[in-house]
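Supplementary Methods S3. Complex input for the flavin-adenine dinucleotide-bound model.
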Amino acid sequence: MIYDFLVVGCGIIGLTIAIEIKKTFGGKVCIIEKESTLGAHASGRNSGVLHAGIYYKPGTLKGQLSVEGNRQMREYCQERGIRQSRGKVIVTKNEKELEALRELKERALANGADVSNIDERELKEIEPYAKTVGLALYSPNTITIDPKEVLNKLLEDAKALGIEVAFDTKLTGLKGRDEAITSKGSMSFGLLVNAAGAYADKIAHMFGLGMQYTMVPYKGIYFRLKDEYAHMVRSNIYPVPDIRFPFLGVHFTRTPNGIVKIGPTAIPAFSKENYSFFDNIKKDELNEVLYCNAKKLLTDKNYMLLGIKEVSKYIPFLFYKEAKKLLPALKYSHIISYPSVGIRAQLFDKSKQELEMDFIVLKHDNSLHILNAVSPAFTSAITFAKYVTEFID
Ligand SMILES: Cc1cc2nc3c(=O)[nH]c(=O)nc-3n(C[C@H](O)[C@H](O)[C@H](O)COP(=O)(O)OP(=O)(O)OC[C@H]3O[C@@H](n4cnc5c(N)ncnc54)[C@H](O)[C@@H]3O)c2cc1C
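Predicted complex, serialized as structure tokens:
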């Protein structure tokens, strides 16, 4: 089979890029996906929050694309009848966090996001059970959706445009410069787009690109409020995060169907698809994970403290204590575990021994690679796809 464009990975990134490419260039477009179902990994296992452009350093790709990304994804959800719930507050736990809250507001305004400070009284009107010290930040454009609903609609759109989607088809290697070897046979391509999420590093390596990078997986575990206590959270309640790291801290998210999720954690995982404790551990991935975490733990005290804090959240009572800081009336008996676990694959640069914070796009010859499509990549996907398509000539 011969394709003008072969997209590897049918997550939110692969789907939106394939659609944008088809609309822009036409031609024969095919998405291959190693799993048999849609949303088996990050795109179907996330918090479903359309972030409003608050956290990201101005001038970064995240900062540049997130506000417009939020607007375009909200509009898409509206057009396609996808349910939404609205609003978010970021609360402080102590006076020391007011400085970081101010920094978040400055970043948000520089990115063009709509945010405002609210005081303790105003917070009580929006979220009666939440607590802040002095000020909180209010974001009206943070939206919650069901990510699987979005994926299903995008898959319908892709098929309607004539894009072929092949599930159960894994890219395993390359032959020459323009032939992909897959579990279902070989496929020739004009351009290969690597949107393989956690495995995007490995596919870039097949092309001899991004050899300094490896993906390090972090596990996101959730709890939820029992239904009878779901009224305690009306929208989204977030803490002030440590902005040196790409994780936002345990927060409360009200889904459009009224479930209040608490989480996720960012616990180092043993492998890229290690969703339950000792399941699906691959030796080569475990070695990489141990190597990168050990390097980082030994050289970065803050990373070590973060690691200790995150791993402690495996203990439900300690997880609960973290959540209670945002919602003082919360009782341990109000929460139960939530079945969905997600894994964030975060790009690690072995030459710098740093976690990469921004989206990274590599284009060389007849391949285009999306590395580090981390949060808020779901939010920004439609806008990001337009940005990426401009790399194609
Ligand atoms: C716990 C958690 C919470 C998050 N919360 C949010 C949020 O609230 N808002 C937000 O904007 N973002 C959030 N994110 C981030 C967001 O989910 C990701 O940025 C986004 O889903 C990445 O999409 P993707 O298409 O790159 O990856 P994926 O969804 O992982 O898709 C990649 C696909 O490639 C396939 N694949 C891999 N290798 C191959 C191969 N060799 N051959 C064929 N197919 C292959 C995989 O099976 C997979 O389906 C969260 C992520 C997690 C894990």
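The chain has a mean pLDDT of 94. The longest strand covers residues 335-349.
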